[in-house]
Design goal:
By secondary structure, this protein is α+β, with helices and mostly antiparallel strands. It has three helices and seven strands; from the N terminus they run E-H-H-E-E-E-E-E-E-H. Strands 1-7-6-5-4-3-2 form a seven-stranded antiparallel β-sheet. The chain is globular and about 45 Å long. About 25% of the residues are buried.
């Protein structure tokens, strides 16, 4: 079993445009389908709720770990934390890292979610499967958002 999910995509948008789409909470919310309550600040929590149809009940609770402009953005969260009756805060979070590299006039974006070995065994396989599919969709969403 793997401990991480990795997705990479080559975007035609320049690094500064992709960086803004990742780190401006309003722009992030548009392509990620989440209403975020305030700006991203390294070392601080970020809260909100999902806006994707069928997932509106899911809270957005992350901690921003790094905002190293314009190449590295990271946060921690609880993967596939969709059951409102479960207190996921008792679990170790996973780390989501976005790395941006210039690629000609565009950007190579790599998303890595790691730390699944810390997810409780009874949730691990489903969390990896669901977030794996989720990251495939999200890199396509950001492509559509920044490449228009």
């Amino acid at each position: 079993m793997t401990d991480s999910i990795e997705r990479s995509i080559n975007l035609s948008a320049p690094v500064d445009r992709v960086w803004r789409a990742l780190t401006d909470h309003r722009e992030f919310g548009q392509w990620f389908r989440v209403a975020i309550e305030g700006p991203f600040v390294a070392g601080q929590p970020s809260t909100g709720h999902m806006t994707l149809k069928g997932y509106e009940h899911v809270r957005w609770n992350v901690r921003i770990v790094a905002m190293d402009a314009p190449r590295h953005f990271a946060f921690t969260w609880h993967p596939y934390a969709i059951d409102p009756a479960v207190d996921y805060d008792v679990e170790e979070p996973t780390l989501v890292t976005f790395r941006l590299e210039p690629d000609g006039a565009g950007t190579k974006l790599t998303v890595i979610e790691s730390g699944f070995d810390k997810v409780p065994a009874h949730r691990r396989d489903e969390a990896i499967r669901m977030n794996g599919g989720g990251w495939t969709a999200q890199v396509d969403n950001i492509r559509k958002y920044v490449d228009g």
